[in-house]
Amino acid sequence: MLRPGFTGSPLDRADRLRNDPDAFMTAVSDWRARLLRLDGIDPVLGEDGRLSWGSLAEADEGAELLLLGLIDGRPHFAALDYGMPEGATRSMGIFRTLDLLPPEEASTYAGARSLIDWHLRHRFCAKCGNGDTVIHRAGWGRQCGRCGAEHFPRVDPVVIMLAEHGDKVLVGRQYRYPPGRYSALAGFVEPGESVEEAVARELHEEAGLTVRDVRYVVSQPWPFPSSLMMACMATADEAALTIDTTELEDAFWVDRAGVEAALAGAPGAPFLAPPHYAIAHTLFRWWLEQAA
């Protein structure tokens, strides 16, 4: 069974509490309630290598509480401080931390990070353009104080895909990747477009490929700042590439032995694989397993 990174959180999201102010206040006053410890917007790890939680009394003065959900009936919160940096500004340490977190812990953190970042970006009303927004629904919405419009957290749909030709798949690298790293190609789904259409368009735009038989494999949240990655496969009848150098620095076809070596971190592997918590890593493993 596929287990992508950032999935498997033990949180009960407790939607039943979000529209009940009395229930929310009961959760806040619960002596068992826990607060996610953060360094800015990055997670703090305990000695056990898992997320660190403290009491609600640790929240900074003026911070607002966001109800993440319940774990074993115990309320778990994150604190929103408007002085936090937006998640789009990633610290270099965040990826080293994610290497250490179990998937279910990373999943809980991903939800908190994306929710906090959404609040930091939506302090003003996008409908009337004039009103300040305030938190409601226990942190899972904002409401304009002027026109009353409600705004809710959203995720951006992204396709990430491997084009297959014979016994090889296409890997590519962007300019910002670490030296030697290659991954699956990816792009945002555009308005009025299906997942399958987005896969075909992105592969054609970035690599000049015409593909068919697009197949969905698995999905994963990606909290930088808040995307839903939908991993797919597609079949290319021709191998010739026309690379869009505004999007990709390089791309090439690699066989199963090359992908296996890359995932194993073997010396002489044809590329540096994506980290284990990235869905591209999961997609590569899935492709290898299909031939097993």
UniProtKB/TrEMBL annotation:
Family: Belongs to the Nudix hydrolase family. NudC subfamily.
Catalysed reaction, written as an equation: a 5'-end NAD(+)-phospho-ribonucleoside in mRNA + H2O = a 5'-end phospho-adenosine-phospho-ribonucleoside in mRNA + beta-nicotinamide D-ribonucleotide + 2 H(+)
Cofactor entry: Zn(2+); Mg(2+)
Name by which UniProt lists this protein: NAD(+) diphosphatase
Domain Nudix hydrolase: 153-276
Catalytic class of the enzyme: hydrolase
Keyword NAD included in the entry's annotation: yes
